[in-house]
Structures are given as C-alpha cells and as structure tokens.
C-alpha cells in the first residue's frame, strides 16, 4: 500500500512579519518553514525565498506576530497588503476554531517609500475635500 502524501501545503496559524526598508517578509512561526513569503514594498510583487535578508545595525527591521494575510488591495496609487494583527476565538465548527478579526494592519506597497514627504503631501487630500460627497469630488464645481 502506498503512503499518501499531501500535495497541498498546510496553512499556518501564526506568522512573524519582518518589516525591512525594501520588503516585508512573512515567516511561519508554527513549525519548520522551508520558504518565506517576500513582498516588495515598492510594487507589491511577491516571491518565495529560502532565507531572511541579512540583518545588521543599519538594517533593523520591525518584527511583529500576525495571524494571516487577508488579501491584497490594488489601487491606482499602489498595492496594500491587509494582515490580521489580532483575533478572538468565538467558537468552533467540526473541531476547527472560528475567529473574529479584532486587529488589522495595512501594509503599503507603493513608490511612496522612494518619494519625499513633500511629494507625498501632493497626494494628500485636504479635510474640506474629504467632507464632500464622492460625486462632488470628481470634477471642478460649476
């Protein structure tokens, strides 16, 4: 009899998020990991890497635990990764935990890390503009 092998990779329940200057790296915490998910901070491209980028005094990444990636929001100004930072167990179904999302972090992946603060402010909307209904924000008022 042949042993069955699971072709589908297992989901991880916790990830260590490394926030480097040029990329985000997701490292599985619950078990041995062969590969890490690397996300380019300038354009949102992803790839699997076999090791973490080198760390030193000049590259001091922020590190935090996250519970998963919800998805990627792609807008004209760039991509944004949505990650779960906190959760509460609210029950179970067939032995599997059901969680309620209680914390979320938005990780920007756009060229804003390469632009100056003055250039970034050009894209910032004023408070008076934000208070207008969307249909009035589209074009010049008559």
Automatic annotation (TrEMBL):
<dbReference type="GO" id="GO:0043812">
    <property type="term" value="F:phosphatidylinositol-4-phosphate phosphatase activity"/>
</dbReference>
<dbReference type="GO" id="GO:0046856">
    <property type="term" value="P:phosphatidylinositol dephosphorylation"/>
</dbReference>
<feature type="transmembrane region" description="Helical">
    <location>
        <begin position="65"/>
        <end position="83"/>
    </location>
</feature>
<keyword id="KW-0812">Transmembrane</keyword>
<keyword id="KW-0472">Membrane</keyword>
<dbReference type="GO" id="GO:0005783">
    <property type="term" value="C:endoplasmic reticulum"/>
</dbReference>
<keyword id="KW-1133">Transmembrane helix</keyword>
<protein>
    <submittedName>
        <fullName>Uncharacterized protein</fullName>
    </submittedName>
</protein>
């Amino acid at each position: 009899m042949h042993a069955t092998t699971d072709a589908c990779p297992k989901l991880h329940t916790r990830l260590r998020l490394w926030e480097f200057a040029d990329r985000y790296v997701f490292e599985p915490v619950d078990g041995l990991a062969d590969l890490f998910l690397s996300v380019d901070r300038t354009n949102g491209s992803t790839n699997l890497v076999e090791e973490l980028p080198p760390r030193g005094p000049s590259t001091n990444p922020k590190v935090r635990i996250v519970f998963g990636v919800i998805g990627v929001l792609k807008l004209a100004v760039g991509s944004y990764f949505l990650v779960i930072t906190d959760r509460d167990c609210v029950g179970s179904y067939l032995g599997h935990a059901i969680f309620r999302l209680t914390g979320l972090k938005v990780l920007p992946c756009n060229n804003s890390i390469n632009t100056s603060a003055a250039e970034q402010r050009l894209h910032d909307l004023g408070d008076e503009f934000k208070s207008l209904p969307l249909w009035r924000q589209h074009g010049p008022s008559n």
